[in-house]
């Protein structure tokens, strides 16, 4: 009589794999929207940099331009006007730096810092 060894995943092993998959899916659902928002910030800054005459705009107009672009792309939740810094050095440097804190599980928070700058010439 030949004895065969069982192959496959046990119920406990399946439960462990399922818990891990659900946990990483949950973390991904919490992080992906924040990176999509950052992608909208990068896109708004790059579009502003390519816009003709952007270097001659007033700081208020630059902030309005960026705020409007973020509002249109539904990405103005975490990026406020006070996060937009405009300085003059070899052209106009526009920098958006902000931090997002989101609860993950209980008292564990996700803290993500985003920083992007472009120079308008």
Features:
alpha+beta, elongated
Textual characterization of the structure:
The structure is a single chain. By secondary structure, the protein is α+β, with helices and mostly antiparallel strands. The chain has one domain. Helices cover 45% and strands 26% of the residues. It has a three-stranded antiparallel beta sheet, with helices on one face. The radius of gyration is 23 Å and the shape is elongated.
Protein topology:
Elements lengths: L10 H40 L8 H14 L11 E5 L3 E14 L2 E13 L1
Antiparallel strand pairs: 1-2, 2-3
Give a brief description.
The chain has 121 residues and is an alpha+beta fold.
Q: Return Rg in Å.
A: 23 Å
The span between the termini is 83 Å
The best one-word shape is elongated
- Sheet with most strands: 3 strands, antiparallel
Q: Write down the secondary-structure element order.
A: HHEEE
Work out the number of β strands: 3
Which regions have little confidence, pLDDT < 50, spanning 5+ residues?
none
Helix/strand/pairing category: alpha+beta
Strand order of the largest sheet: 1-2-3
Mean pLDDT: 91
Structural domains: how many: 1
* Count of helical regions: 2
Helical percent range?
Answer: 40-55%
Question: In what range is the share of β-strand residues?
Answer: 25-35%
């Amino acid at each position: 009589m030949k004895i065969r060894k069982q192959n496959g995943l046990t119920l406990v092993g399946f439960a462990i794999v399922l818990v891990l998959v659900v946990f990483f899916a949950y973390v991904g659902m919490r992080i992906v929207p924040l990176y999509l928002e950052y992608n909208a910030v990068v896109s708004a800054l790059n579009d502003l940099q390519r816009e003709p005459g952007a270097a001659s705009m007033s700081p208020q107009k630059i902030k309005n331009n960026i705020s409007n672009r973020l509002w249109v792309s539904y990405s103005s939740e975490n990026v406020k006007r006070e996060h937009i810094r405009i300085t003059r050095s070899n052209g106009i440097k526009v920098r958006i730096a902000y931090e997002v804190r989101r609860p993950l599980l209980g008292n564990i928070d996700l803290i993500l810092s985003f920083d992007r700058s472009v120079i308008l010439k």
